[in-house]
Write a structure and sequence with these properties.
The complex is a heterodimer. Chain A starts with a helix and ends with a helix. Chain A has three domains: about 120 residues, no CATH class; about 250 residues, no CATH class; about 35 residues. Chain A is α+β, with helices and mostly antiparallel strands. Chain B has one domain: Fumarate Reductase Cytochrome B subunit (Up-down Bundle). The radius of gyration of chain B is 21 Å and the shape is elongated. The chains are: A alpha+beta, B mainly alpha. At the A-B interface, α1 and α16 of A face α1, α2 and α5 of B.
């Protein structure tokens, strides 16, 4: 044994040294991993920024063209001049939904059906039928005064509303789509080019009768805003035009709205530029199988001006001394209008979140009411559906007039230039307005009407925030008050738990602690007693002689 | 008193790194679970993930060690003297009776430890680690992607993982307490740190033959 020891020691020391080296290497690897800061250079993003920073200059300056250096008496003459060079372009336009106000789509349960502004109902000014004179302000044509508009007449195509680069063009109010009388047609015709934000925005920012009324994420502030408002359109950011994403081969513009288009093709997606794996972190990339980009990257909408969140038509028609009136809220938004009813507005709104698979069911004129509140555009989807993702939406609520006997929403006649023409906005008579409106669309009206709750869903896609302002993990992964609190039926770590397991586990842990403490107390008591007993004996022995 | 070499260097390294990893994983894990807020969800999840890979790596090393050294035999459960060991903790130790089993390098675990650690290694840790790996790789897949782990609901994976975590915490409490039941309250912990344990000679009731055997190894 004694001989063995010296020979063993060097070997032991060697093993120990080897072992220490191994630990040192592992420790170094761990430390490198802990303290190494991943450089945040996202190559994909930088490449995109470079690509979209390049501004193309136009190959034609229209003011140099002979055909446009003349006087235009009517806007149709401008269109004719356009067609002298762009000889076939009207065909592309006349095949578009901007012109036709409808588009065919396959809808589950309905088959192939056409929907669009012609025949859908919405939660704002209800519908275009019988109100074309004023609604046509947002039709890319001239002279749509009623539902007998000639969709075959190329002269009535309005090229200028989309292609005016002089920011001069303006459609007149209630002028059936004709430009305002103040517009200098020569100036506009000579300064045309690719659509700018102001062109698209002239309709899409002001839909529903005012700025940001409908969308909540599209409004005039985006003509010149900061990156914080909209990272894509921000003037101090990429300053992108709408058509950068909403590309338009042959005038078929990519992107549609779920208020009018129920199917899931020709959509604009974030992925078309950013790909399906845009993040450096794999965990975040994997979220995209169930979470849309928008859900995290648009923490709030209506960042600058308010958007309409509620519209109650049932309140409409009140008069003061026989005259219509209006009330405003503290931010200057209409709270009440006799012609329209009462509204609620909101700014910096946290969106609602729903499961959405890209298809919708849209309420069309004449549909029977199936559920209350009536969903003007039901967005389909569920956790179980593999195509579904969580998306942010603005839910616009309110009520609308409906026929109690036929159980369907009523398309009332709202607009007329004159009183006594059954128009609600002039005469404030629901009965007459309903009769006239329903007669116009060819549907029966029972004469018995009431108001029914309605809601409409607006997927929030714009006003993307800079990455620093993205929704954080803990805003959803939290026990209470998370953004996804209302979205149930699946297990969300940090929010959900097995309550029975947690309760039993908690108490089992507590009882174990108590058991251990009890055992320790008994041990200590026993040993103290034993100790004392031993000491007593000792002291007894010591005391004995003195006694 | 005599010094017995009970725990080898790797064993001690494995024990303490596993202990700290498990405690750290519990700390971050229950935050991810939503039980409290310390690091914030994002950091907690990130740390938990990193620590879990370290633990998996460590356990692979440990398994390798167990088989190459034959140490796995120490963990084969036995019922021999199991009752005596239980009775000792419940009754005997209060009366100042000696440990019914002897601690040596060849047999460092008492029957109760054997059965507990066997369960720990063969049931508890595998449940927690396997459910943890499933949890980590859990992915609900797009329409066109490959499906890896999808049909099995995340709620069930989380259930097993949380169950494992709770049992581990209960184990931790009992385990830490039991270390104080050695010759002196700290002798077991000292042994796990230095490798050597002070053992009362009086407690020994083994044959001289076995004693020799032991000295050889020391």
């Amino acid at each position: 044994m004694a001989q063995n020891k010296p020979s063993e020691n060097p070997q032991n020391t060697m093993y120990r040294n080897l072992f220490l080296v191994l630990i040192a290497v592992i420790a170094a690897l761990i430390l490198v991993n802990v303290f190494h800061q991943e450089d945040n250079f996202n190559f994909k993003l930088e490449e995109l920024k470079r690509e979209y920073a390049i501004q193309e200059s136009p190959s034609v300056q229209h003011f140099k063209l002979q055909a446009l250096n003349r006087v235009f008496k009517t806007p149709q003459e401008v269109t004719e001049a356009c067609l002298t060079c762009h000889t076939e372009t009207h065909k592309e336009i006349m095949a578009s939904s901007h012109w036709n106000w409808e588009r065919a789509a396959y809808v589950e349960g309905r088959g192939i059906s056409s929907s669009g502004k012609k025949n859908v109902m919405n939660n704002f000014c209800l519908g275009t039928s019988s109100n074309e004179q004023t609604c046509a302000k947002c039709h890319i044509g001239f002279g749509m005064t009623n539902n007998h508009f000639d969709f075959e007449n190329a002269r009535n195509v309005d090229c200028m509303v989309c292609h005016d680069n002089s920011e001069e063009y303006l459609k007149g109010a209630s002028m059936a789509g004709y430009p305002d009388r103040s517009v200098n047609l020569e100036e506009v015709a000579q300064h045309v080019g690719l659509p700018m934000k102001s062109n698209c925005g002239s309709c899409h920012f002001f839909s529903g009768g005012g700025n940001n009324v409908k969308h909540g994420d599209l409004e005039k502030a985006q003509l010149s805003c900061s990156r914080e408002v909209d990272v894509h359109m921000g003037a101090n950011g990429m300053n992108m035009e709408c058509v950068a994403c909403h590309t338009a081969e042959n005038h078929q513009i990519l992107g549609k709205l779920y208020s009018v288009s129920p199917d899931n093709n020709n959509r604009v997606t974030c992925e078309q530029c950013h790909t399906g794996t845009p993040h450096l972190s794999d965990v975040i990339n994997r979220h995209s199988s169930k979470v849309s980009c928008q859900a995290c990257h648009i923490p709030v909408f209506a960042k600058v001006n308010s958007t309409k969140m509620s519209w109650k038509w049932s309140d409409a028609g009140k008069l003061k001394e026989g005259k219509p009136f209006s009330e405003e809220d503290s931010l200057g938004n209409d709270r009440y209008l006799s012609i329209k009813g009462s509204f609620k507005w909101a700014r910096n709104v946290k969106p609602d979140y729903i499961w959405f698979n890209g298809t919708a069911e849209i309420y069309l004129l004449g549909d029977t009411i199936k559920s209350i509140p009536v969903q003007m555009n039901k967005l389909n989807g569920s956790y179980k559906d593999k195509a579904s993702k969580i998306i942010p939406v603005k839910i616009h609520v309110g009520d609308q007039i409906y026929d109690k006997v036929y159980n369907r929403l009523i398309q009332p006649k709202l607009y007329s230039e004159n009183e006594g023409d059954s128009a609600f906005w002039k005469d404030f008579n629901w009965d007459e307005a309903s009769k006239a409106g329903m007669a116009k669309v060819g549907l029966p009206f029972s004469g018995k009407f009431g108001f029914v709750e309605t809601e409409m869903f607006w997927p929030v896609n714009h006003m993307v925030s800079p990455k620093e302002q993205t929704v954080t993990c803990a805003e959803c992964h939290t026990r209470v008050n998370g953004r996804l609190e209302k979205l149930t039926g699946f297990y969300l770590p940090g929010r959900d738990r097995h309550i029975a397991l947690d309760t039993v586990g908690y108490w089992a842990f507590i009882f174990t602690l108590l058991g251990v403490i009890g055992h320790a107390v008994v041990r200590i008591t026993v040993s103290i007693r034993k100790d004392r007993y031993e000491k007593q004996i000792i002291s007894y022995d010591e005391d004995k002689p003195t006694e | 008193m005599k010094r017995v070499y009970v725990y080898k260097a790797f064993e001690r390294f494995w024990h303490w790194s596993q202990a700290s990893l498990i405690i750290f994983l519990a700390l971050t894990g229950f935050e991810v679970h939503g039980s409290y807020h310390i690091f914030g969800f994002e950091k907690a999840a990130e740390f938990h993930r990193t620590a879990s890979w370290l633990l998996i790596g460590l356990i692979i090393f440990a398994i390798f060690w167990h088989f190459t050294t034959g140490e796995w035999k120490q963990y084969v459960p036995t019922t021999k003297q199991l009752k005596a060991q239980i009775m000792y903790y419940l009754y005997g130790m209060f009366k100042g009776k000696p440990h019914p089993t002897e601690k040596t390098q060849l047999s460092k675990l008492n029957p109760l430890q054997r059965i507990t650690y066997f369960g720990f290694k063969v049931i508890l840790v595998p449940i927690t680690i396997i459910s943890g790996i499933l949890y980590m790789l859990y992915k609900t897949i797009d329409q066109n992607d490959l499906i890896v782990i999808e049909e099995y609901p995340l709620a069930s994976i989380a259930f097993w993982h949380v169950l494992g975590a709770i049992l581990l915490m209960i184990f931790l409490v009992v385990h830490v307490y039991m270390t104080t039941t050695g010759t002196t309250p700290t002798s077991n912990i000292k042994a796990m740190m230095t490798g050597y344990e002070e053992i009362d000679e009086e407690e020994h009731h083994s044959s001289p033959e076995k004693d020799n055997n032991q000295k050889d190894i020391v």
